[in-house]
Amino acid sequence: MIGWIDTLVQGVLLGGLYAMFAMGLSLIWGVMRLVNIAHGDFILLAAYLALVFGETANLHPLAAAPLVVAAMALLGYWLQRGVINRTLGKGLLPPLLITFGLSVVIQNLLLEIFSADSRALRAERITTGSLQLGDSLAVGWFPLGVFAAAIVLGLALQAVFARSALGRALRATSDDQETVRLVGIDDRRMYALATAIAFALMALAGVFLGMRTSFAPSDGPANLLFAFEAVVIGGLGSFWGTFAGGILLGVAQTVGFRLDPGWGLLVGHFVFLAVLLFRPQGLFPRTR
Amino acid sequence: MSLLATRGLTAFYGDFQALFGIDFELGAGEVAAVIGANGAGKSTFLQSIAGLNAAPRDAVRFDGETLGGEPAHRIARRGVSLVPEGRRLFPSLSVEENLRLGASTRRRGPWTLERVYALFPRLAERRALPATLLSGGEQQMAAIGRALLGNPRVLMCDEISLGLSPAVVKSIYAGLPQLAREGLSLIVVEQDIGTALSVADRVYCLQHGRVSLHGRPAELTREAIARAYFGLAA
Amino acid sequence: MSAAATAVERATRASRIGAWAGGAVLVGACSVPLWSDSGTMRLLVEFFCFLVMAQMWNLLAGYGGLVSIGQQAYLGLGGYLLFALANHAGVNPFLCVPLAGLFAALVAWPTAKLVFRLRGGYFAIGTWAVAEVFRLLLANVATFGGGSGQSLMAMAAIPRAVREPAAYLLALAAAAGAVAAVYLLLRSRHGLALTAIRDSERASESQGIDVAFTKFWVYLVSAAGFGVVGALYYMNILRISPNAAFDVNWSAYVIFIVVIGGIGTIEGPILGTLLFFALRETLAALGSWYLIALGGIAVVVMLYAPGGLWGALAGRFGLQLFPVGRRLRRRQ
């Protein structure tokens, strides 16, 4: 019995990481109805950036994290401003095809630069300590920290969107891109800012991912899939729905792994497919 | 010296030409009415000035400087505000949030949230509601309030009477001359000739993308206006 | 102008020349087994496979407006059906090719019901998720060799002199058939519906076009095409594994071919496949740089020349080799 509770807890904590993956995807979709196919690869890029900082400047991943976040935010801003903004409003295909192209380019660049070997971010002291709950239940400090970070970030995002001037401007831009210009707001810049925020989230997620597990250049697509499944399970248009979706996915995968290592990911996929079949709007959708 | 002027303004929607060279002038503190039948090009005219439709560089001048070709958000920041046709409030935002967004032009001036609420008390009562829950008249007031909070020097109103009851139209138009007296210049686009003429210092009549008549209301006869509006032969 | 004064034409001068040239190429292609070697035939089989995939993906995306990055699901299924029937049920491998297409379409039926609940970008990722599910499922099935796959024993029984030309001709038939099918489809009423949907879904619906149904069977046709290719391809290389068969790089290659060649045209995918193979032969030594270059070119093309290579050429010279449009000509 305790074994199952432990599995559940592990799943929930994993879900926190998935929720972080999904937040960036959900944000960009919410503001500009865009899906970035290279989403998972950018998360991975962040992990590799942290690796580079670690190896060249001997920085602990958490120390490197602010640098990675800043670098990725800048990258996201200029990517949106310079490339993706041009494809918006021109139909469905261009943004998807361009971000797909970027995905392939990033994966193969990482492959060329870092080779296909698995790497990991060195953070033993943080990642191996754990908190004792009762007699036989131990919860790792690190997964707990990631989960807490996800909650804090979710709350912060919610606050920014609901209460700040920037959030107002972003919501208005997402409502009506043309009219927003009439009140003096540059919609192109708003999109770029939204992407920068999303990339900052993805950067943090990438650093945590690298600290939690080993990674290789071909892992990008998996990250995208998990983010996407979390969003679909939770429901489009709702931050907390996405969060719940991430948790459910994490639990499903962890339970699956416990049943049979070959079936871990599959159980997660099945939960996603089941939600798609029986409740396509997601479990906690927000009606707009 | 006019505050806002257009010279030979043209406008296209793809291959379709909507405006064929509009000459227009607005002096400081004036109210200009632009009238015409459906499809005459009135909205296109305002949208071209506002930057939603790309205007040729020298075709629009504001306060002595070129306005044509500038992006719409910069035009708004320079003090030319459009209240668009159909109001176009932001559905995800409350009334107050919509109004506050108007201040994104970052311009200084007499307009504050309190002053807008004083002008339109009904909005103050409904400030926390989602903008979509307002009646047509209230939405129009909110749209005007949003534009006013940008502290513009020129306010352009596109068919604000559309879909509103005569009483509401009257009350909104009653407030316009006061705005002009305080220094705001207005361009009012209307299908309703009577309402437009009642507030205007100058009238321009558009027909199929061209100016068919212009002058001061006192100088123009009803027959001349009707001819220009409908395009009937003399 | 009265109706008798104008004529509706389909063919252009370029298309008539193209028809003759195409016929000549086809005859020439049929004769290949007589005068070329093993290596060339296998390369051509691969070429035909990519040509079919490009046409199928273009049909789905360029005409149906559905961007899928998971068609490799059906490629893998087609390949595994071949192995299942030929290795384990003793069916003639060549017969498995059309069966693979049928099987893929059958699986695509319920899959479409699921995946069509998503739109746009989420649809794209959804198709990818489906391919992943198939990959993981098959990796867990021991009969097919699990994660490491298996070899096609059944082909060993057939003598090489028969096996290779037969595979080649089958692939040629598939390629010619795919191009012909797409061409005829687009010339027909259904093709007009597709083009209308591509231009505006709403307008099409208001004209009475059943958009949902049209997209549905386009998805099925595309799946069948990929299924056929799966069987053909793995019959050609004789060994299958889940990671190879369901690799997303299949989609990457096909998408790049269609985008660079010219999306939304029949000529584009053909041109794209030719370019792809030419590049591959010259850049073979570069490994992942090949994909990086392809991806970069595709991004640049999408930004600055969304019609691709053929779009640029056709726009410049007003060419149409496969006349799917209709022109109005005044009668003298």
Record the SSE blueprint.
The complex is a heterotrimer of chains A (288), B (234) and C (332).
Chain A: H1 2-32, H2 39-57, H3 61-82, H4 93-114, H5 124-128, E1 130-133, E2 137-140, H6 141-163, H7 165-175, H8 179-182, H9 187-212, H10 220-234, H11 239-259, H12 264-278
Antiparallel strand pairs in A: 1-2
Helix pairs in contact in A: 1-6, 1-9, 1-10, 1-11, 2-3, 2-4, 2-9, 2-10, 3-9, 6-7, 10-11, 10-12, 11-12
Chain B: E1 4-13, E2 16-26, E3 31-36, H1 42-50, E4 60-62, E5 65-66, H2 72-78, E6 80-83, H3 95-101, H4 113-119, H5 121-125, H6 136-148, E7 154-158, H7 166-181, E8 185-190, H8 193-199, E9 202-207, E10 210-215, H9 222-230
Parallel strand pairs in B: 3-8, 3-9, 6-7, 7-8
Antiparallel strand pairs in B: 1-2, 1-4, 4-5, 9-10
Helix pairs in contact in B: 3-6
Chain C: E1 6-9, H1 13-35, H2 38-63, H3 72-89, H4 93-115, H5 120-139, E2 150-151, H6 160-187, H7 189-199, H8 201-206, H9 211-237, E3 239-240, H10 242-245, H11 249-261, H12 267-283, H13 288-304, H14 308-317, E4 327-330
Antiparallel strand pairs in C: 1-4, 2-3
Helix pairs in contact in C: 1-6, 2-6, 2-9, 2-11, 2-12, 3-4, 3-5, 3-9, 4-9, 6-7, 6-9, 11-12, 11-13, 11-14, 12-14
Note down, in words, how this protein is organized.
The complex is a heterotrimer of chains A (288), B (234) and C (332). With 288 residues, chain A is mainly alpha-helical. Chain A has helices spanning 2-32, 39-57, 61-82, 93-114, 124-128, 141-163, 165-175, 179-182, 187-212, 220-234, 239-259, 264-278; strands spanning 130-133, 137-140. Chain A has one domain. Chain A has a two-stranded antiparallel ribbon. In chain A, strand 1 (130-133) and strand 2 form a beta hairpin. The longest helix of chain B has 16 residues, at 166-181. In chain B, helix 3 packs parallel to helix 6 (136-148). Chain B starts with a strand and ends with a helix. Chain B is α/β, with parallel strands linked by helices and 234 residues long. Chain B is 34% helix and 25% strand. The mean pLDDT of chain B is 89. Chain B has a six-stranded mixed beta sheet, with helices on both faces. With 332 residues, chain C is mainly alpha-helical. Helices cover 73% and strands 4% of the residues of chain C. The interface between A and C is large, with 44 and 42 residues.
